[in-house]
Amino acid sequence: MRRALAVVLCCCLLAGGAVAVPGVGDRQHARPATPATNTSEYLTVGPDALETASYRRATLDVSGALALDTRRLEGQHRQLVLDERFATIDSTATRRAMLRRSATRIEGRIDGLQRRQATAVGEYNNGTIAGREFVVELARIDTAAGRLGAAADRVTERARAIPGSTIDDQPATSWARNRRVELGTLRGPVRGRIAATLRGENTIPLDASTAPDLEGVGTAPDERLETLELYVETTDEGVVLATVDEGRYYREAYLPTERNDTAAGKLTDITAALDRVAERYPWTWNNSATTDSSGDRRAGIYRFTLFYGHGRLTTHLDRRSGEVFAEQQRKRLSGTPTAEPLHETAGNLRLTVNRTYPTGPLELALTNRAGEPVDGRITVANRTVGRTGTDGRLWTVAPHESATVVAQTDEGRVGIETGFSPTTNRTTRTTRPTDER
């Protein structure tokens, strides 16, 4: 059972000045964040590239779950049929031809998935599809990418029956590994949680603090389904997703236009790629215990996973441009450092805000003047994002720019207006040359 703690703040772009919140009283103007530097850098969307930024929600979806599972089963059946056909073939030349056809089909479907995602982003940006449809489509792409990765592995298994067999002039194992690296840019921990929610796997225990506010459907006497709150940003072709779940923060970014930029310079080999990672992620590089690498010149992509004290980072670099264009982050909330906290008191309520960076984890705490935890409803930019519960705390995801955080109880309300944009702790440029926008 998964206890979903995912509550994500709306990324609202507020135009200057303070935002009035009835009943909160006079406060300071927005206070910029001092970034918490002792944590991983992150791939960010620049203001000139940002198309949309908003909350989205995933819920139990029987038809969506059936579509995911049906396509997964169809993929498994297709591989079993190919295995049986391959086993009945005696000719080595015929077997090799079958391997090449399978590899070509997989490569074509990977290209198709990339086009499919670009189409979905474009339709979401122009309003052709709604936010719910968009996040479901991302989950479907994630599932399809997983199927193609499994299919690539099956090609490797079949190739073992043909000594010295190659695919595109490289060992079958290398070919399959490179396809998995490529498919990894279309997958991520947030998309996986969307798919699990569609299947009804996102549940929360019923207790005195959580039962009154849930909108889910009953699943068992002691648990109910819960929606998954998401933060979504898009560019013309790219997407950023973030959520908080089960005491962890998850974020994934895919910005394919970074592959068209040549400012960073071509990566000649894996050593040059490692140097670029160290340049783009200096804190993470200096504080990682181990590093896992994959991909090569033939893949056109280098993938590195860095493991550090409170999380892990997986980053993808394009060989030709030398730029980071895809990234997945996983962090333990309990180990994530935050900037200097903000405090505001009104009546008997005291609100504390612990910030990290835009689209990063954000901790809110509500107490009374005696320091005892208080359960209150939290809104950000006039949107309800959850309750602090019996322990008086709520982890969410920070908005893109300044926003007003308000806590409300039967006793009253208290609010803080603050900014979240740091000047460090990010990776890659945030704007693009004019001719490439």
Question: What's the helix and strand layout?
Answer:
Layout: E1 2-3, E2 52-58, H1 62-87, H2 92-125, H3 131-159, E3 166-167, E4 170-171, H4 172-184, H5 189-198, E5 202-205, E6 218-220, E7 223-225, E8 228-234, E9 239-245, E10 248-254, H6 270-280, H7 282-287, E11 288-294, E12 301-308, E13 311-318, E14 324-332, E15 342-346, E16 349-354, E17 361-368, E18 377-380, E19 383-387, E20 393-397, E21 403-409, E22 412-418
Parallel strand pairs: 1-5
Antiparallel strand pairs: 2-8, 3-4, 5-7, 6-7, 8-9, 9-10, 10-14, 11-12, 12-13, 13-14, 15-16, 16-17, 17-20, 18-19, 18-21, 21-22
Helix pairs in contact: 1-3, 2-3, 3-4, 3-5
- Overall shape: it is elongated
Q: What does the main sheet amount to?
A: 8 strands, antiparallel
The residue fraction in helices comes out at: 25-40%
* Number of helical segments with 4 or more residues: 7
Q: Numbering strands along the chain, what is their spatial order in the largest sheet?
A: 2-8-9-10-14-13-12-11
Question: Would you tell me the overall average pLDDT?
Answer: 78
Q: Rg to the nearest angstrom? A: 24 Å
Report the order of strands and helices.
EEHHHEEHHEEEEEEHHEEEEEEEEEEEE
Report the structural category.
alpha+beta
The span between the termini is 45 Å
Regarding quaternary structure, what we see is single chain
Low-confidence stretches: 1-30, 203-224, 428-437
How would you characterize the overall build of this protein?
This protein is of the alpha+beta class. Among the domains are: 2-38 and 336-418, Immunoglobulin-like (Sandwich), CATH 2.60.40; 62-194. The protein contains seven helices and 22 strands. Strands 2-8-9-10-14-13-12-11 form an eight-stranded antiparallel beta sheet. The protein has a four-stranded mixed beta sheet with strand order 1-5-7-6. The protein has a four-stranded antiparallel beta sheet with strand order 15-16-17-20, with no helix packed on it. Strand 12 (301-308) and strand 13 (311-318) form a beta hairpin. Helix 1 (62-87) packs parallel to helix 3 (131-159) and helix 2 (92-125) runs antiparallel to helix 3 (131-159). The model is unreliable at 1-30, 203-224 and 428-437 (pLDDT under 50).
